[in-house]
Design a protein that fits this description.
By secondary structure, the protein is an alpha/beta fold. The chain is built from eleven helices and 26 strands.
């Protein structure tokens, strides 16, 4: 029998791949049966900030093409980037609106092409020029809003792959977590994540293309599921939806990544790996992670969560001779210690002498039922207001009749276009050549004249929208989930 020494390095040092626990197979003898603990591994990828964590995820990957996303204030533009990352086999790196962080610059060394996701408000022309100065060819993909940006990304995926791939519909305003759950699937399958408002389809999708609506009915209505003939994948919250996505699309996967369910930025950059990304919090159900043989935590996952996952892996990898899981408390400890046995009770003996009554024992003060915990210090994460464009008037074309001042030959009625001027006055050169070289069949009557010509013009009027606040801006504590407006 092997004796096992476990090592749990819960301190999250800044390193690319930090082993947290590595357990080899060992056997222990239970009082009733022999059990085996199968091997499992835990590791961590983390940096001093989100930019370095994304850069470390990109280490060892082909970085000839990269995808740049700004996730400082909103993940809106980055929600649809994962499918493109899978299509071009590229990592997702993070930039600021007007700056490329040093960690990202280092990761960009050797890159030849860079997709910039979002408009110039998200990633400025200054960043684009910095990319060019590094010898990298940028290509910006943008739309007038987050929904149209996701559609433009889907067009690029179709152009790169040369085919229509699976479509994953999410709510672009209230379904960021759902988008992060399906993002690794999109990366794996080179699929298209289309953002919607949760009510109607922003684009027509062929019924021949596999289509999924991710999220419960509160974020993705039954109407949009029906219109798209989609398969719904949703749970009561982000964590249950995440579990259902992983169980459906990563059935036999044995390597899991793990990132915080709030904020989601580390889950975004991890999604490009095309592996299941389990979203976790201290209170979320993590038992499904026990199916993995290796779990890699990304970013600042707390020590408490790491301990919970380690215990789940230990339990799920402990099996009996019949191959079925055995609860850890039912087995002997690896160091060979046996469960403590209670001594046999001795028969009660009668006292030889009369027993004098004992003095009453004063009751001890009761301890509080719950330990007193220190006051929680909130770590507020700001969320911008969710604004939806409400259509007031659809775009329309208006036909108008107007007069234009044209130069026209009086002889043959040839129209020389709008009467223009140069520094010498009215420009009649075109008509003079026409007259002097005999082009006019009625040259004897050919004279230049100024005439008003009635022409038909079409004036396009864009659609008229007004901003409708769906949800005001709010702050959410990343620790306890408390919300303040």
């Amino acid at each position: 029998m092997k004796k096992l020494t476990k090592s749990l390095a819960l301190g999250m040092a800044v390193t690319s791949m930090l082993p947290i626990a590595s357990v080899q197979a060992y056997e222990v003898n239970d009082v009733q049966r022999k059990v085996t603990v199968n091997p499992y591994d835990m590791a961590a990828i983390t940096g001093s900030n989100r930019y370095e964590t994304a850069a470390k995820l990109a280490q060892g990957r082909d970085k000839s093409t990269v995808i740049l996303v700004n996730a400082d204030k909103s993940l809106a533009d980055g929600l649809s980037a994962s499918g493109l990352a899978g299509a071009v086999n590229a990592p997702i790196l993070l930039v600021k609106a007007n700056k490329i962080p040093a960690e990202t610059k280092e990761a960009l060394k050797g890159a030849k092409n860079a997709y910039i996701i979002g408009g110039k408000n998200a990633i400025s022309s200054s960043v684009e020029n910095q990319i060019k100065s590094m010898g990298i060819k940028p290509k910006r993909i943008e739309g007038s809003d987050r929904i149209k940006t996701s559609i433009e990304v889907s067009y690029e995926i179709a152009e790169v792959t040369g085919k229509d791939t699976a479509v994953y519909l999410v709510n672009g305003f209230k379904g960021e977590a759902d988008a992060m759950s399906i993002a690794p699937v999109a990366a794996k399958n080179k699929g298209q994540i289309i953002l919607t408002n949760g009510k109607y389809m922003p684009i027509n999708v062929s019924t021949d293309i596999p289509t999924y609506a991710v999220g419960g009915s509160s974020v993705m209505s039954n109407a949009i599921v029906s219109d798209a003939q989609a398969t719904r994948i949703g749970g009561k919250d982000r964590y249950e939806t995440n579990r259902k996505v992983i169980e459906k699309f990563f059935t036999n996967e044995k390597v899991y990544y793990m990132a915080k369910g709030n904020p989601l930025v580390d889950a975004l950059t991890t999604s490009a790996m095309g592996k299941p990304v389990a979203l976790v919090s201290e209170r979320s159900d993590k038992r499904f992670i026990g199916k993995a043989d290796k779990v890699i935590s990304v970013g600042g996952v707390s020590n408490r969560i790491l301990t919970q996952v380690r215990d789940i892996l230990e339990a799920s990898h402990t099996v009996g001779e019949d191959g079925k899981p055995v609860k850890p408390e039912d087995t002997q400890k690896p160091d060979g210690q046996k469960p403590e046995e209670k001594p046999d009770a001795k028969p009660e003996e009668k006292p030889d002498k009369p027993v004098t009554p004992e003095k009453p024992v004063e009751p001890k003060p009761e301890k509080p039922s719950k330990p007193v915990t220190p006051e929680h210090k909130h770590n507020w994460v700001h969320h911008d207001a969710i604004i939806e464009k409400e259509l007031l008037h659809m775009a329309w074309d208006e036909k108008v009749m107007s007069k234009e001042y044209h130069l026209i030959c009086r002889g043959c009625k040839k129209d020389f276009g709008i009467y223009d001027y140069d520094e010498n006055g009215p420009n009649t050169t075109r008509w003079e050549k026409h007259a002097l070289y005999g082009e006019c069949p009625q040259i004897y009557d050919a004279v230049g004249c100024d005439m008003d010509k009635v022409v038909e013009k079409i004036i396009h009027h864009p659609a008229v929208y007004k901003d409708k606040i769906i949800k005001p801006a709010w702050d959410e504590c990343s620790g306890c989930g408390q919300i303040r407006k």
